[in-house]
């Protein structure tokens, strides 16, 4: 098959240009403009400004009634790049450390292939989404009428995965990515002299006790058969060696795959905080934000995706979900579909996602394009 060969080098150049000019969530103005220009050049119907900087390009072919959405995320991360690549980020403190530049290029490549030879009958929506990295761009597009304006009976998304061999495709029915919660706890006393602890609630000691208790939730309140992670990632309080601080702040994250488990973790956290209030005579507040739900694949969509993947590359059933999160979860709450991983591992110890030495592996771009094309032609069969 030579339908992609002439596209690869221009797409790699496009990907590297996007990489060199990264933009954070909801600020992907140059990125979106470049994508829209490419989509219009191949004759697609292009809609901009959806959910902020989001784009949907529509390709209709034949008289089929089926509809499908294929999604790629566009935003970069607030991380300083250390790859030393010729196409390194030109924006200080910002770079494509999660491969969204590669996702954009692969979906754009699929649009180019299908625009000149659809091979299907129906309507295909190419969804270029802003602000995946913690800002809920998918939710913003949905709230802006994504699925009302562009019907998708199914929706798929592809993410590069350094932990898999380059070119290998994996997915699974059910949970594939975790729900992401974040919490901030503030313990308050009144502050006082460190030499007179009997006169002042000790917020440092209360915080230390609470951190220990929080780290017991997964091991003692969650069934061993359930997967979950609770990590305390920040603790701040105090400014002098002889002062008991008036307040201490504790922050962290929770990852889970089952809403029942998610509820139990938050419930136990609230109970423990109340106990700390009583034990240490402090006041408390808790901000608990369930900002991304678990990414739950539809079983039929995941099964079809694995069958289709096996026609273009090595395909495998992912043995377990990843505790990292993904806002494609919001789309899967609205429409059946599946989230897939595309292996891009190079060498024995490839840099992971969100690492300053990470870069998307251009060698897997062709596989990603072919997968998108095959998924479209499978669901929108002529």
TrEMBL record:
Needed cofactors: Mn(2+)
Keywords: Hydrolase, Manganese, Metal-binding
Cofactor note: The Mn(2+) ion enhances activity.
Binding site for Mn(2+): 98, 100, 133, 159, 354
Domain spans labelled Peptidase M20 dimerisation: 182-274
An example Gene Ontology biological process: diaminopimelate biosynthetic process
Gene Ontology MF: a single term: metal ion binding
Pfam families, alphabetized: M20_dimer, Peptidase_M20
UniProt protein name: Hippurate hydrolase
Organism for this UniProt entry: Novosphingobium pentaromativorans US6-1
Top-level taxonomy: Bacteria, Pseudomonadati, Pseudomonadota, Alphaproteobacteria, Sphingomonadales
